[in-house]
């Protein structure tokens, strides 16, 4: 017959040992895209641009930062993850960058349709590091009028070379690619006479 006290002590000892092992596991590094402050329009404006949450390719809708290893192989990192859902970061980052590029337009989120507002939506096909040392952002964007009519439909593609190796450099380069995408969209909106 086993001694219940020894069995309990052995279970407790094993639990403490396993708990100690589990606590020594290093948590994954978490990253946020570089922030840009949202600009307040310099003057009161009647122009409003609503920016919706982007639709991500399925392989991008993960916690891990995606790296393209060759022409056909993609890998989502386990130890290097987004601190917040990538779609939310892209939406917030795009709104902030567009507010800087379009100072006479109020750029807002797309929660609830606003009368007379134009709506910008994105589909993101690529937002990843690539084996050649570039950070790539590509996809399509649509601009719709107040009556939901399609005003513009364009593709976008931006690449930024990493300045050094590592995930922090990749995240910064992805932020610069997003800067370029926002700048290109803002230019199309300004020159298209949509406001």
In brief, what are we looking at here?
With 195 residues, the protein is α/β, with parallel strands linked by helices. The protein has helices at residues 4-23, 86-101, 167-192; strands at residues 29-31, 48-51, 55-56, 64-68, 74-82, 106-109, 118-130, 134-144, 150-161.
Structure description:
This protein is α/β, with parallel strands linked by helices and 195 residues long. The protein has a single domain (28-192), classed as Rossmann fold (3-Layer(aba) Sandwich), CATH 3.40.50. It is built from three helices and nine strands, in the order H-E-E-E-E-E-H-E-E-E-E-H. It has helices at 4-23, 86-101, 167-192, and strands at residues 29-31, 48-51, 55-56, 64-68, 74-82, 106-109, 118-130, 134-144, 150-161. Strands 1, 2, 3, 4, 5, 6, 7, 8 and 9 form a nine-stranded mixed beta sheet that branches. A hairpin with a 3-residue loop joins strand 7 and strand 8. Helix 2 crosses helix 3 (167-192). The protein is elongated and about 75 Å long. It starts with a helix and ends with a helix.
């Amino acid at each position: 017959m086993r001694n219940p006290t020894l069995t309990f002590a052995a279970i407790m000892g094993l639990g403490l040992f396993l708990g100690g092992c589990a606590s020594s596991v290093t948590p994954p590094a978490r990253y946020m895209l570089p922030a840009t402050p949202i600009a307040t329009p310099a003057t009161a404006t009647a122009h409003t641009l609503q920016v919706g949450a982007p639709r991500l390719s399925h392989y991008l809708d993960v916690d891990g930062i995606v790296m393209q290893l060759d022409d056909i192989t993609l890998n989502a990192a386990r130890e290097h993850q987004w601190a917040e859902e990538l779609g939310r970061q892209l939406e917030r980052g795009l709104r902030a960058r567009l507010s800087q590029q379009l100072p006479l337009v109020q750029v807002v989120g797309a929660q609830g349709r606003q009368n007379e507002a134009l709506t910008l939506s994105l589909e993101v096909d690529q937002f990843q590091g690539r084996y050649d040392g570039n950070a790539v952002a590509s996809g399509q964007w649509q601009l719709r009028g107040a009556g939901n009519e399609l005003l513009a439909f364009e593709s976008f593609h931006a690449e930024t070379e990493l300045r050094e190796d590592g995930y922090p450099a990749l995240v910064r380069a992805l932020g610069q690619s997003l800067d370029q995408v926002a700048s290109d969209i803002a230019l199309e909106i300004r020159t298209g006479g949509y406001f």
